[in-house]
Amino acid sequence: MFRDRTDAGKRLADALINYKGLPIVVYALPRGGVVLGVEVARALEAPLDLIVVRKIGHPLSSEYAIGAVAENGYVVTNPVETATIDGRWIDRAAAAELKEARRRRALFLRGRSPVEVTDKIAIIVDDGLATGLTMQAAIHEIRRRGPRAVIVAVPVAAEETANDLRPHVDDLVVLFIPGRSFGAVGSYYEFFDQVSDEEVVDLMKSMPHGELGGVRTGC
Q: If we measure between CA atoms, which residue out of 167, 168, 164 comes closest to residue 177?
């Protein structure tokens, strides 16, 4: 159990402290992951950027993820869930979510250019992993930017999801993997209020772009 996202971020930063001093870029998944990303980036004295990925919800239950789309248009789906869904519907839903992802990046970053990650270590942070679909899309998006290594770091993850992701990253850091039915990410937090767009904007404004703690990042 984590008190809130700030507590989880501080504890995640402690688990990543061996990366401090290396050429790294921290990426947070909005909105909830940004709270943790700020804590990790500050502790590691690293620049913080966003990787905006949008969930594709089931046509009969929008909160139930059947896929995800990254900013570059890459789509990942759960083939079991999408087998009975019209492919044209999935294409339309993915296009709509891609448009929203790009709108949110413009909103959250207010014209900031992406932090250069070529030949650096990318650490992708979120507040938890349930299905892992959005994280899969995020990993693909980051890989195409040419990092030296990709690290995924989360406070809590479903065991099956963690096992599925491990072959696709250079390191997977999870503080807690429950040995029971996973449920919702929020059930592992005492306080798990929704993070607003305004909070994300304010958090990103608080982080210097390309430079933190006097360490030049080369961007």
A: 164
Yes or no: say if 138 and 151 are a contact pair by the CB < 8 Å rule: no
- Give the span between the Cα atoms of 158 and 142, in whole angstroms: 22
DSSP state of 157: B
Separation between Cα atoms, residue 179 and residue 105, nearest integer Å: 36
CATH 2.140.10.10 fits 5-205, yes or no: no
At residue 13, the pLDDT reads: 98
Contact at 8 Å (CB) between 43 and 20?
Answer: yes
Residue 123 pairs in a beta bridge with: 26, 151
* Cis amide prior to 3 (ω within 30 degrees): no
Task: Give the pLDDT of residue 215.
Answer: 39
pTM, to two decimals: 0.90
Mean pLDDT, residues 122-127: 98
Of 132, 122, 141, 129, nearest to 74 by C-alpha is: 141
| 175 within 8 A of 120, measured Cβ to Cβ | no
- For residue 28, give the 3-state DSSP assignment: strand
Amino acid at 79: P
Q: How far is CA 118 from the centre of its chain?
A: 19
Environment class of 18 (CB within 10 Å of its CB; exposed 0-12, middle 13-18, buried 19+): exposed
